[in-house]
Design goal:
The complex is a heterodimer of chains A (415) and B (233). Chain A is an alpha/beta fold and 415 residues long. Chain A is built from 18 helices and twelve strands. Helix content of chain A is 51%, strand content 11%. Classes of the chains: A alpha/beta (415), B mainly alpha (233).
Chain lengths: 415, 233
């Protein structure tokens, strides 16, 4: 993100501040009390670092200051910044990714040693969690601080089914939430992200997606901290295919960009973590599996011509068998799901069909996995979900040779 | 009398031979033009085929939904296009050869044919672009329909594809100036028929869906909301 794209009033305020040790970007919709708690937390940081807080400007114009937040607690270095512009392209995730880029740009302009992003509302939040994000960065020990949320078993399903285990398999680091969204980044890492964006501005890579992979490939230090339970937005079933396309598109692009790096990695190792896990109650309500199985069966009937361009015959045969199973026996094997993800990633790279069509046609398969997962965990205890995800992650790692073979020889290796 | 008969025969034979002799250069020119055009067509077709295979023309067609991913189908696409280019070159050579005959009708035939070639190319381009667009829209509608749990998504997709192809076909025929009045009328009837069929299919097929949606909207305030516990991101 270039300096000239920083809104004028924000740029003026940043130039007044001139420098800061830590930049905190607030993307979450925090109320007055939340901001005050955040400031109290930041004031406890050792060394009294100079802190600038960039908050999303929800005013009428692109750079109009928010009088309410200006009065809140008399924050001296508060900069209002319109992170989220009206989304005309129907791609709200792009707006979110752009907000991270904006925070890093603000950090670069202020010469900050670290940037933190607060993007979630938490319940049962770990004490001083924001300063826990910032402190290791300011002390220069780590480059990327990522969260470990206390999660209900049916939350963060895209992350549990694809993003986290795929990242672990590719880059060899057992990161639970590679895409945060609450995170802390060192100067070294956010400058790397910004220069990658400048060198290839239209490459479709987004800072939030690239952070964990860039840190892993550059052998930077990654750390995790336990936060509370994140409050997730409710599922918009009408737009789930768009969500999948917007999230997985950059993930697959990142995979293509880092092919040289991940093909050398074997196995995975743990990432150091701090804090105590926060427990949550698991009263999660009923999951309607039949709707998702029906979606999968409809997809299997009508999308065969598209899936056959992406998936090998053996996988298509297993999907047909799966679609004929009754509801109570509906189980998608982990190995099948993993091979599907790898095949779609390869098809994304080869542009077998339009990338948007490719990712949206994955929706029934994803719903089949969710139905299978929900079926497995419907009556299971709180630790069962972690064991289930661990088994899935192990399946990703054990199938990596399949991915490498197909990636290197897509025409010759097609089982 | 026999002398007069012999003279008449000799004169008619001489006229015929003279006439044939006057056509001979034209025929030789025609044969030469066709032979050269066949030779050029062979070279151009070979170059075009190699170029299309190198550009992965077949894979592009598969991406656009034109053919199956089988290797034979993708190679056949390049062969088909290269043969079409060769045929066009031979046709142009034949027309050039025909104009060698010093006759007005051959000249006008060649001129009209050469003037018609841009119409043919324009029509082909319109139809090809229309087909690509039709297949893209059909695939978009199919995927969106399936993701919205429409059981008639395939029918909808086929309808959209047919609509766009019929439109492209009518535009191509108008370019070719083939029975424009008939084509317009036939297009209007066909297009209207397809739209009516789609409207009936969607309207009747989605009747239950709309009823249930309206019922859900009416009953929602009085019922306890059962929260879906699934969270994806």
């Amino acid at each position: 993100m270039e300096v000239e794209s920083i809104p004028p009033q924000a740029l003026e305020k940043i130039e007044q501040i001139s420098s800061a040790d830590l930049v905190v970007g607030i993307l979450a919709d925090l109320d007055r009390e939340g901001i005050a708690r955040l400031w109290d937390d930041l004031q406890d940081l050792p060394g009294s670092p100079r802190i600038a807080v960039l908050q999303n400007d929800k005013g009428a114009g692109p750079a109009s200051p928010n009088p309410e937040t200006a009065e809140t607690g008399g924050l001296p270095f508060l900069v209002s910044w319109p992170f989220f512009r009206p989304d005309l392209t129907g791609a709200p995730m792009s707006s979110l990714f752009g907000a991270y880029q904006a925070v890093f740009a603000g950090g670069e302009k202020l010469g900050a040693r670290a940037c933190c992003v607060v993007a979630s509302k938490l319940e049962n939040a770990a004490p001083r969690w924001v300063s826990q994000l910032a402190q290791p960065l300011l002390e220069g020990e780590f480059d990327l601080i990522l969260p470990r949320y206390a999660r209900h078993k049916f939350e963060g399903l895209l992350n549990s089914s694809i993003i986290s285990p795929l990242s672990r398999c590719l880059y060899g680091k057992r990161i639970l939430n590679p895409m945060g969204p609450d995170l802390g980044v060192s100067q070294r890492l956010f400058r790397k992200m910004l220069s990658a964006g400048r060198n290839a501005p239209n490459n479709g890579i987004h800072a939030l997606v690239s952070l964990a992979s860039a840190a892993s490939c550059a052998n930077l230090q990654v750390y995790e901290i336990h936060l509370g339970a994140r409050i997730y937005p409710p599922t918009d079933w009408a737009n789930i295919s768009s969500l999948i396309a917007q999230v997985l598109g950059p993930v697959f692009l990142e995979m293509e960009r880092n092919a040289v790096c991940w093909q050398r990695v074997r196995g995975s190792g743990p990432v150091p973590a701090n804090g105590e896990p926060v427990s949550v109650t698991q009263d999660t309500g009923n999951v309607d599996i039949s709707r998702m199985v029906e979606s999968f069966q409809l997809g299997n009937r009508d999308l065969q011509e598209i899936w056959s361009l992406v998936l090998p015959p053996a996988t298509l045969f297993e999907l047909r068998k799966l679609s004929r199973l009754p509801l109570e026996q509906f189980r998608m094997p982990d190995e099948l799901w993993v091979r599907i993800i790898f095949d779609f990633a390869l098809a994304h790279r080869l542009r077998t069909i339009s990338r948007d069509h490719l990712l949206k046609s994955m929706t029934p398969l994803y719903l089949a996995w969710v139905a299978s997962y929900a079926h497995d965990l419907e009556t299971a205890g709180p630790t069962a979900s972690e064991q289930r995800i661990e088994r899935l992650s192990a399946a990703y790692e054990s199938s990596k040779s399949y991915l490498v073979s197909r990636w290197r020889w897509p025409d010759r290796f097609n089982p | 009398m026999w002398d007069q008969v012999k003279q008449a025969l000799a004169q008619s034979a001489a006229r015929l031979l003279a006439r044939f002799a006057s056509l001979l250069p034209g025929m030789v020119a025609l044969i030469l033009a066709v032979v050269i055009s066949i030779f050029l067509a062979f070279i151009l077709a070979f170059v075009a085929r190699r170029l299309l295979i190198r550009l992965r023309f077949g894979e592009r067609l598969v991406e656009w939904g034109f053919s199956s991913p089988a290797e034979s189908a993708t190679k056949n696409a390049a062969v088909l296009v290269s043969r079409a280019i060769g045929g066009l070159v031979i046709l142009v050579g034949f027309l050039i050869g025909i104009t060698a005959f010093d006759a007005e009708w051959t000249f006008r035939l060649a001129q009209d044919a050469l003037e018609y070639i841009p119409n043919v190319l324009g029509a082909a381009l319109v139809f090809v672009v229309g087909s690509i667009v039709a297949r893209f829209f059909a695939r978009s509608v199919l995927i969106s329909g399936v993701n919205m749990n429409f059981h008639y998504a395939r029918l909808l997709s086929l309808g959209v594809k047919s609509l766009v192809i019929v439109l492209a076909g009518a535009m191509a025929l108008e370019h070719l100036r083939i029975a424009p009045g008939v084509v317009q009328l036939a297009f209007g009837i066909l297009f209207g028929g397809i739209v009516l069929a789609l409207a009936l299919a969607v309207g009747l097929g989605a009747k239950d869906f709309v009823t249930k949606s309206l019922q859900r909207d009416v009953e929602k305030p009085s019922n306890e909301t059962v929260e879906d516990p699934l969270r994806h991101l």
